[in-house]
Specification:
Blueprint: H1 9-21, E1 30-32, E2 41-48, E3 51-58, H2 63-75, H3 86-99
Helix pairs in contact: 1-2
Length: about 100
């Protein structure tokens, strides 16, 4: 574990509301930009009640995951921020699909 933080009540409510809006069943297990062999790749595990969803992201922006990462980055020190740049990832993906 790199970092641990106790959430303030307002942050806890924000996270609960955020997770409540996400439908785990609608999330795919794998998202990728097939034009990038390496680069930004990570695995995220979401748990909502008894449901657990394992999602791999490979150089791809997924909106629900993006909102979670934005929230996490807003409460942790900058040195622990997760890079997940929406503009860059979407631009790179669009460039990829325009090639095929």
């Amino acid at each position: 574990m790199l970092f641990k933080i106790e959430l303030e009540p307002t942050d806890t409510l924000k996270l609960i509301n955020l997770l409540r809006e996400i439908n785990l069943d609608s999330l795919k297990p794998y998202y990728q930009n097939r034009c990038v062999d390496d680069g930004f790749q990570f695995n995220i595990i979401l748990k909502k009640g008894t449901d657990v969803k394992n999602i791999i992201l490979a150089n791809y922006y997924q909106e629900d995951i993006g909102r979670i990462i934005y929230f996490i980055n807003s409460i942790v020190p900058n040195k622990y921020n997760i890079w997940y740049d929406k503009k860059t990832l979407i631009r790179d993906y669009k460039n990829c699909i325009n090639r095929y």
